[in-house]
Design a protein that fits this description.
By secondary structure, the chain is mainly alpha-helical. The chain has 16 helices and 3 strands. A 3-stranded antiparallel β-sheet has the order 1-2-3.
Length: 332
């Protein structure tokens, strides 16, 4: 095992997991980022992996790598920033382990995260959501796909949160609920809608799911992947939108269902703090984005702000009959 290989293993298994107690999702993100960096060094810089050392990874190389991700791989700014965060975290670890890495760590630490241009948030109307669910159908062959989609829609959870749900996390009663393990290992409770509860009961009975089994497992009874969930979501949105042109937006991701749930709660009059707790946002400012996107509520706020103002129907005569000099003289 080469020097950098042993350092990366120690970084992921000891520093991240044991010393810092980071989540498996964060460690997976770091691992993916460093893997891409090493492959870039091998394939684009022509350096054999068994000859790569920390000294090969300088500020210029990292910047070249980030440009490669955006230009050649066509990855988003968010992904680019995630990869940079992985590299920065690795060099912080190196700096922590030995002072000899301080110069290179400092240079890499000063590489800026790129600002993301925020596009308009997209979400689905209740009518579009119902159309998509109808296209999936309730047949046994599509039962898992239906429940995955309905779970995303009715809870607003993130994809990884969905993947992590086990049977033991769900409680069925008059007020059924699911306990979600979110970012930073924080656990939150989300009530189950009646339709989701009834659908899950049939699904769980059909697949005989119990105990610590994953709620949505693959055919090998292992945890499903993010790409697997994404495929299911896009498949049925594509089918539904091809037959129903009114469905907007046409390009739907798993996160679109999360946005849709937030807008549904907002339009139902649920307060922002409750929406924050359901979605698992750390800061209320993140949840407030949905309020900014609600054009109806914006219009209502504007109307309320001027409702009681006694505005004159005609412009004051001085505005049309007096010169600007005369007006200014009033302030002398």
């Amino acid at each position: 095992m080469t020097s950098i290989s042993s350092q990366i293993v120690d970084f992921l298994s000891n520093y991240c997991l044991n010393e810092r107690g980071l989540s498996k999702n964060t460690i997976s993100t770091y691992s993916h980022g460093l893997t891409q960096l090493l492959l870039f060094i091998r394939d684009k810089k022509g350096i054999d992996l068994d000859k790569v050392s920390v000294q090969n990874i300088n500020q210029k190389l990292v910047l070249d790598f980030l440009d490669y991700l955006e230009i050649d791989c066509q990855l988003s700014v968010s992904t680019r920033n995630l990869r940079l965060a992985s590299i920065k975290s690795f060099f912080s670890y190196l700096n922590y382990r030995s002072s000899i890495y301080i110069p290179s760590s400092e240079l890499i630490k000063h590489i800026k995260m790129k600002k993301k241009i925020h596009s308009r948030m997209e979400w689905l109307s209740p009518e579009s959501i119902n159309t998509i669910l109808e296209k999936i159908g309730l047949e046994n062959s599509r039962m898992k796909h239906y429940n995955i989609t309905l779970f995303l829609i009715d809870t607003g959870v993130r994809v990884q949160e969905l993947l992590d749900v086990k049977m033991s996390d769900i409680q069925f009663s008059s007020t059924s609920k699911v306990y979600i393990k979110g970012k930073g290992g924080k656990v939150r409770m989300i009530p189950l809608t009646t339709r989701l509860k009834n659908s899950l009961l049939k699904y769980i009975s059909h697949y005989n799911i119990s105990g610590d089994q994953y709620l949505f497992a693959n055919k090998y009874n292992r945890q499903m992947t993010r790409s697997g969930i994404t495929y299911i979501v896009k498949k049925y949105v594509s089918i539904a939108s091809s037959e129903n042109p009114e469905i907007q937006p046409k390009l739907v991701s798993c996160h679109t269902y999360r946005h849709s749930k937030a807008m549904q709660l907002l339009n139902a009059g649920v307060d922002l703090i409750s929406i924050r707790d359901i979605l698992g946002h750390e800061n209320l400012s993140t949840t407030e984005i949905y309020l900014k996107e609600d054009e109806v509520k914006k219009q209502q706020a504007i109307e309320l702000s001027v409702k009681d103002l006694d505005l004159p129907l005609e412009r004051p005569k001085w505005k049309t009959e007096k010169s600007i000099i005369d007006i200014l003289k009033q302030f002398h």
